[in-house]
């Protein structure tokens, strides 16, 4: 119930903003198309609602009020570029300000990416770590792509809780638990849901990517993204309160959480006498005595007759009567001038011109190359496959929804500016 109320409160604020923006645009359009009112000294602007921070309590709830800088710290670390000589830092500027497009209410501010073509990274630590084991996890935030989105991400990451988590040194390579939100570049346009899963045997982490991720809405109005993960390993993704994807952590991610219990035996090889062919030529079949492999595919149609309107004495082409020898043509140097040819106009409305020959037709006696019919191979053993053995790396995690404890939320952006993030609710 707590989540339902929270989602409703935030969604209502969003709805009011969108409705107001639509009404404002309509008013401006009406003013532009209606005769001027001599009594009106200035355009009429509807009163905007005023933002009031919610009193809702949650493990983490950020509405970017005046004290936001106490929680959010930008990173100035150098990006991890292993194997590359390139070296740069997260030097993009962040700001908290009201939107510049489709403003919904007075005083409603968001975290804005300010610097064009720069790398931005910022994070906020939770008051205390969030451990979702055995609980429903809700991740919800607003995105306003005020300048559109050509290539980049507007997702957030929930960082793994550890003592080495320093906000000033946070990078794209910092360990995270969940990555969620829109990402678009080229033909890729999706709402990411990726989680890091810990292998209980090796202790190593592996990213699990959602299959068939929903499409992100790339618009300049505010979009509300919600992720809900239940203890029974089911999840729901919502956009603006509407379900766009549901599924299971155990069934809808690649690589799968649990490896197969059995694998192919790498030492097993196919026997030399294994027969792979399921069908073979019938060894007892014989070519019929009347089968003529040399008979041509086509023969002359001896029954054909020349059409009555065929003009045997007329050529298909004639010298162009309108062509003239160029003035600079020298017969001694260039040879005799021959005018170009054009289609004979006398042939346009008849069956043809010039010598007539009988056409070809399909040979009724043609049979082609003879081959024996196929029969089932009595020696066929089936499709060979190596025998199965127990997977030495097998494990079964029945509760992948028991994510690792999380210590902070972060936003990373590059190339694009004027993104606005608002109302982070976890």
Automatic annotation (TrEMBL):
Localization terms from the record: Endoplasmic reticulum membrane
A GO CC term attached to the entry: endoplasmic reticulum membrane
Any GO BP: protein folding
Primary location recorded for the protein, binned into one broad class: endoplasmic reticulum
Gene3D superfamilies, per the entry: 2.60.120.200, Calreticulin/calnexin, P domain
Biased composition (Basic and acidic residues): 264-289
Disulfide bridge partners, by residue number: 151-185
Segment forming the signal sequence: 1-21
This protein's UniProt keywords: Chaperone, Disulfide bond, Endoplasmic reticulum, Membrane, Signal, Transmembrane, Transmembrane helix
Any GO molecular function: unfolded protein binding
Domain of life: Eukaryota
Bilayer disposition of the protein: Single-pass type I membrane protein
Database matches in InterPro entries: Calret/calnex, Calret/calnex_CS, Calreticulin/calnexin_P_dom_sf, ConA-like_dom_sf
Disordered, as annotated region: 30-49, 256-291
Protein family (similarity comment): Belongs to the calreticulin family.
Protein name, per record: Calnexin
Lineage: Eukaryota, Fungi, Dikarya, Ascomycota, Pezizomycotina
């Amino acid at each position: 119930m707590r989540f339902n109320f929270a989602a409703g409160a935030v969604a209502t604020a969003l709805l009011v903003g969108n409705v107001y923006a639509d009404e404002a645009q309509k008013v401006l359009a009406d003013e532009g198309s209606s005769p001027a009112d001599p009594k009106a000294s200035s355009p009429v602007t509807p009163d905007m609602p005023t933002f009031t921070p919610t009193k809702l309590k949650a493990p983490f709830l950020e509405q970017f009020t005046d004290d936001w800088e106490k929680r959010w710290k930008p990173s100035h670390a150098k990006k991890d570029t292993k194997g590359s000589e390139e070296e740069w830092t997260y030097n993009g500027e962040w700001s908290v300000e009201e939107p510049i497009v489709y403003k919904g209410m007075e005083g409603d501010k968001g975290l804005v990416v300010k610097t064009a073509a720069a790398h931005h990274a910022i994070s906020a630590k939770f008051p205390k770590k969030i451990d979702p084991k055995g609980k429903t996890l809700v991740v919800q935030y607003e995105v306003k792509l005020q300048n559109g989105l050509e290539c980049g991400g507007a997702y957030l990451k929930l960082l793994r809780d550890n003592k080495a988590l320093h906000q000033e040194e946070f990078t794209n390579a910092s360990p995270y638990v969940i990555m969620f939100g829109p990402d678009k570049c080229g033909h890729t346009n999706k709402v990411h849901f990726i989680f890091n899963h810990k292998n209980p045997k090796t202790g190593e982490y592996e990213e699990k990517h959602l299959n068939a991720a929903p499409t992100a809405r790339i618009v300049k109005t505010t979009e509300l993204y919600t992720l809900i993960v239940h203890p029974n390993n089911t999840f729901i993704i919502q956009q603006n309160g509407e379900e766009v994807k549901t599924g299971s952590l155990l069934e809808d991610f690649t690589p799968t959480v649990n490896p197969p219990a059995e694998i192919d035996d790498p030492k097993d090889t196919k026997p030399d006498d294994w027969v792979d062919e399921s069908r073979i030529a019938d060894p007892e079949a014989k070519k019929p005595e009347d089968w003529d492999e040399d008979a041509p595919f086509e023969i002359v149609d001896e029954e054909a007759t020349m059409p009555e309107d065929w003009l045997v004495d007329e050529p298909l082409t004639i010298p162009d009567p309108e062509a003239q020898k160029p003035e600079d043509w020298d017969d001694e140097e260039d040879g005799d001038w021959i005018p170009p040819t054009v289609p004979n106009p006398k042939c346009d409305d008849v069956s043809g011109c010039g010598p007539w020959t009988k056409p070809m037709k399909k040979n009724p006696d043609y049979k082609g190359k003879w081959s024996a019919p196929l029969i089932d191979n009595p020696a066929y053993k089936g499709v060979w496959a190596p025998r199965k053995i127990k997977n030495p790396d097998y494990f079964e995690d029945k509760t992948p929804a028991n994510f690792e404890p999380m210590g902070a939320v972060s936003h990373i952006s590059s190339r694009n500016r004027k993104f606005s993030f608002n109302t982070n609710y976890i």
